[in-house]
Write a structure and sequence with these properties.
The complex is a heterodimer of chains A (350) and B (271).
Chain A (H helix, E strand, L loop, with lengths): L1 E10 L2 E10 L4 E6 L5 H9 L6 E6 L2 E2 L10 E4 L11 H6 L8 H14 L15 H13 L5 E5 L7 H16 L3 E6 L2 H7 L2 E6 L2 E6 L1 H6 L4 H4 L4 E11 L2 E4 L4 E3 L8 E7 L4 E3 L9 E12 L4 E6 L3 E6 L1 H7 L6 E6 L5 E4 L5
Parallel strand pairs in A: 3-8, 3-9, 6-7, 7-8
Antiparallel strand pairs in A: 1-2, 1-4, 4-5, 9-10, 11-12, 11-14, 12-13, 14-20, 15-19, 16-17, 16-19, 17-18
Helix pairs in contact in A: 3-4
Chain B lengths: L5 H27 L2 H8 L2 H34 L5 H13 L2 H12 L4 H8 L8 H26 L2 H9 L4 H29 L3 H6 L6 H12 L1 H32 L11
Amino acid sequence: MLELENINVHLGDFALKDVSLFVEKGEYYVILGLSGAGKSIMLEAIAGMHQTDSGRIILDKNDITNKKIQHRDVGYVFQDHAVFPHLKVHQNIAYSIKNKFPKEEVKRKVEEIAEKVNVSHLLHRDPKTLSGGESQRVALARTLVRDPKILMLDEPFASLDVQLRDDLRALLRNLNREGQTIIHVTHDYEEAISLAQKLAIFQNGKLIQQGTPKEVFANPASQFVARFRGIRNFFTSELKEVDVAITDTNAKVKILPQEELSKGYVMLKSQDIILSKEEDGTSMANHYKGVVTDIVPSFKGNEVVVDADLRLTAFITHQSLKNLELKLGDEVWAAFKASAVNFIKSENPI
Amino acid sequence: MTRTDPFALVLTFLGGLVLLFIIAPLLSMFFGTPLNDVFATAGEKEVLDSIWLTLVASFGGTLFFAFLVIPLAYILARKDFPGKRIVNGIIDIPIVIPHTAAGIAVLGFVSRDTAIGQVASSLGFEFVGHPTGIALAMAFVSVPFLINAARDGFSAVPVRLEQAAYNLGANPFRVFFTISIPLAWRHILSGFIMMFARGLSEFGAVVIIAYHPITAPVMIYERFTSFGLKYAKPVAVIFILVCLVFFLLLRMLTRAKKETVVKNTSVKNIQ
């Protein structure tokens, strides 16, 4: 569907270096990176707002690398929405189709898409009277009305509060379910995990890893990915009870009560896992007996990998390692509190 | 209880002096001119014709040049090219040179001795001693106001909005006419008013291209030199009033526009 081959873009001091990626039709592709990593510039390069120095951009087997912005057929919802301030909401939405269809048809299409993204009640409003969430939905409707091959979203959750985030998440999932290919840029890993079918990690203008959320977080290709939020323990799970998750390896993990039963990911920081040679009698809700399969020392401490019902990575100081006299093959108890577990809902965890 | 701030007092006093400097001569002229004289002068065909000629020549010149200037201003606001600073400098030249010198320059360019003058003449256009020449002289000295205002207007339109329009499949013409111009409109209109007003009041350049047909500023000068202050004042009063009426009308027009155009497009984060 969309293929980037060794894209290089130079903009002043910043450079996008040798980026290659592939987005399949109907895929929800999330690009995750800190601000300044080059995510937006990459979207803008795909949309044609930055000329590439080298490499090719191929959309549906057509080379669009040197095509003008207006001939690319990729929809782009800017982070600041860029709603035209001098046009009413319905004029904004109709902008791309105004001269292409009869008046009635344009009206019908505008109303249809407005209904879909829930802006029907705003059609005759002035953009300056819209809230952040409203103007974003208007920008989304304006982009969707022309039925772009790909929908690109730059930090779509940035200006929304929690309730609106849930609404937008549901809306985006729906669009994707209906077949819309989406590329979504964010700096928020929870947002990325909850929506992505495929995830790409950006750092300093380079794409350093891509794959399913699980592939990326469970097998970080670099320390950067691993430390994106210090997550080393990442398990596809399903809630059996509101406070019990069952992982894909059939391990039971107690978590804080959730609102409803759902699928998702269990995530846990390595610092939150306590290791001991014997099962202790503390209040820890989760404890597993396993075998030490790896010890990776670093300046600050050691990562100890324990194979139990689930493969856990704990982080302990050099002093603790010494006190516990841990070595490869030792039997060990790993424990953590239910409150240390972060459960992220996802429709189709992979 | 309000405290008096000596600094604020000094500022107010100095500012007041400047305002007085502008208003006092005008007021003294208005009150120093008998109403009878004003009404009598207002009835003179020659005076009315000259005011009408001044308005039409300035408006016509401004309108004609607007079509050329707006694309130039857009290029200056949006494109980078070698020599852009020089172009910007050239645009301001008419403001800094003496207007009689500007008149001589324009005359040298369009008189019947020049190629342009001859071509225009063969097509039935006359510049020297003709309203077209007056409009040209007015435009020469006032066009920088329109170019600069329109350029600032286009610069203030976020590039983002134009990119968004391109992304929605619009071609450059459509983006220019549906996004850039409407959003820069207030600046353009304000520049239009400034150019028009500056053209109305032009004397130096106009008098060299065409003493006749006579424009209002030239008539004020002629009456002053031929008959004295007493006879120049009523024409001056009438012309100033006409100028002020147009100026206020057009100002109101920009204000009405201002309310419909949002200057900033970044969306407020209300939630």
